[in-house]
Design brief:
Elements (H helix, E strand, L loop, with lengths): L1 E9 L4 H11 L9 E9 L4 E8 L2 H8 L2 H8 L4 E10 L2 H7 L2
Antiparallel strand pairs: 1-3, 1-4, 2-3
C-alpha cells in the first residue's frame, strides 16, 4: 500500500469555490484504478489544500500522475499553485492492526 500526501495553494479562487469544485469532481476519483481512498484537506487560514491518497500500489499512483484526468483536475489547473507531493510506503503489519 502506498500513501501519497499532496499539498497546494489556491490562487484566484475562494475557499468556497474550491469546496464546490471539489464536491463536483469527488465522485470521479472512485473510477481511478488502484485508489483505495482519498481524504480532502483544507487549511483555509494558511491557504494550504490537498489530499491524502491511499493507493493499492505505486504503479496505480504513477498511472494517475501520468493521466489526462490528473492534468485536468490538478496538474495544469490554473487555480492550484505550488503543488507538491510526498509518497510513503505503508507498513502493512502494524497498519492492519490499527485499521478496520
Amino acid at each position: 500500500m502506498i500513501i501519497q500526501v499532496v499539498n497546494f495553494n489556491l490562487e484566484g479562487i475562494s475557499h468556497e469555490d474550491y469546496v464546490g469544485a471539489a464536491t463536483q469532481v469527488a465522485s470521479a476519483f472512485n473510477e481511478l484504478n488502484g485508489l483505495k481512498s482519498k481524504v480532502w484537506l483544507s487549511d483555509e487560514e494558511n491557504n494550504v489544500y490537498g489530499g491524502i491518497y491511499t493507493w493499492e500500489n505505486r504503479q496505480s499512483m504513477e498511472d494517475y500522475l501520468n493521466s489526462e484526468f490528473y492534468d485536468e483536475v490538478l496538474g495544469s489547473h490554473p487555480n492550484f499553485v505550488n503543488i507538491t507531493y510526498k509518497v510513503y510506503d505503508a507498513l502493512d503489519g502494524p497498519t492492519k492492526i490499527t485499521t478496520s
